[in-house]
Amino acid sequence: MxxxxxxxxxxxxxxxxxxxxxxxxTRQVGATLRARVERAADELGYRANIxxxxxxxxxxxxxxxxxxxLTDPYFAALADxxxxxxxxxxxxxxxxxxxxxxxxxxxxxxxxxxxxxxxxLLVGSRVADPAVTGRLRDELARYQAGGGRAxxxxxxxxxxxxVAPANRRGAAALAKALAELGHTRFAVLAGPPHLVTxxxxxxxxxxALAELGLPEPQIIHGPFDRDxxxxxxxxxxxxxxxxxxxxxxxxxxxxxxRERGVxxxxxxxxxxxxxxxxxxxxxxxxxxxxxxxxxxxxxxxxLALNExxxxxxxxxxxxxxLRESVRRIA
Amino acid sequence: MxxxxxxxxxxxxxxxxxxxxxxxxTRQVGATLRARVERAADELGYRANIxxxxxxxxxxxxxxxxxxxLTDPYFAALADxxxxxxxxxxxxxxxxxxxxxxxxxxxxxxxxxxxxxxxxLLVGSRVADPAVTGRLRDELARYQAGGGRAxxxxxxxxxxxxVAPANRRGAAALAKALAELGHTRFAVLAGPPHLVTxxxxxxxxxxALAELGLPEPQIIHGPFDRDxxxxxxxxxxxxxxxxxxxxxxxxxxxxxxRERGVxxxxxxxxxxxxxxxxxxxxxxxxxxxxxxxxxxxxxxxxLALNExxxxxxxxxxxxxxLRESVRRIA
DNA sequence: GCAGCTGTGGAAACCGCTTTCCGGGAGGTC
DNA sequence: GACCTCCCGGAAAGCGGTTTCCACAGCTGC
Lengths: 330, 330
Hints:
The structure is a homodimer. By secondary structure, the first copy, chain A, is α/β, with parallel strands linked by helices.
């Protein structure tokens, strides 16, 4: 491995001069030496050792993003948005996936802290477990005490800058739109009770129905993924409209209905949440609540990089999008 | 930021002892001192500075993965497989997305080299541009000269360990299967001519048809994504069966047909390639060639980590999966 | 002609950790 | 009891950069 010292020797200059030429410094270097150094670096194929730079400068140009599952298009979109934003700042990205294990999330924050990354983005729903959340907060606090910056996409539970999707309001708006179509008997494929995102959407939906004087929906809990939606759909009794708390679950529900010969939307209406782009060609087209996922990811990064001390929480509204998977009923 | 020295001082031991206790060493440390150090580290909330460790050890525990586009489920699956494998080795992952710009790919290799990452995974099709490929090879060679390890998922064009999907053979097998259903007039939504993956699949398909004595398919070039498939499908003339060189394009084609009232598979059969999991609920279900994407990602990581010097190329076979999007014709 | 700048190059301290090398004490052997 | 080993603790030399501080021009201005 060729080092700066090799370059300096080859160019016949000091280490300091070589460093100043090659790795941006405030100091000027004369044209002659500058050219000599550049030529030497090029000839030798010098690549700065970033670990050494990070150590010497006390700051790295890496950010960390922690997501639940990269193969879930929801997280892929958020991560992509954040990564694009990072690229515009010249930052590299380290991605960790927890596969929905909150302990992993804590472990990642610790590791990213050890890496002295410039910022950490926690992407995804919080869990309703004060103990876990507390430990995560501790770990984050430790990281921030060392000068780290953090932001979260999800619920404002960590005391850091947060981009918070308006899950309650979005679900409520969806409930109203569906009620306007004449539906009165609803079921909610509600996901796991401890997942705050799932719980919020479910609660917002139910609250809106209550406000409209409609009967309580049937609440069915289960996993937050496609198979969870598939399984939960089997348990629906006697509803004209089913709300799955995310699109991927809704797709599972649609698959379950299709297999059983239940027609959507003729026999039952189905709606989801998120408006995953990959699903835009699904048949029937999914009614959902659109979230600007890429923007949210990018925004979270900006918040994290932002130098101000006060914690900012930005709520992001969802937009109800009615498509073929629901229909007006008598 | 609390350093090892702080811990050592608080515990009343030397730096060396503290290091040995906290960061795995071959050397033993007595129980008393060990406990003192651990307590001090805990009290102070010590987190090792990995940049310093990397520098001192001369080796990092990070690997780099370069993909084209994380929001494309093909890459998400490959990346996820690689990341899971990395996790079992205790490695962290740095992900870069090129958004299909080959220059970006070269730039990432350079950056990851500077980071002294343990291994680099290049995931995705090569481009048929010898100049670009040459520069990428140079950059990789430089990285490897410094002790870096590299592997690729795609074509064996870089002189590094490679997991190579059997694109030609897979497409050929698909062609035969479709011909067996009675199809004779084919169109290929071939993607961009310079993308080797697309070109191989297209060529393998055409070659198999030729071998069967069937007429040449209509070849339609275009972007490698959903919209590319959508647009290309509009140009198909007079074929009973359309092969899109990847699933995402096939979905675009299906959307185009659906909008125009062309029924699949009644009026036209459609097949893709990859067997993207997220699309398993698509209607009609997509006939395709299954690639074990997660395994391939994981395998590429193993190859990269493998210490042997010889370059190994592993071909991965695809499996034809016939589903509703194709039908037998008279 | 001389004090005082400014602009540029180099020596060396330092970033936080690992690891080699050295030394001293405990235990074993004859 | 002398002599060897082991075992374990600490001092210090790196790892590859950055940056402070100093030195030495060459100018400017009066």
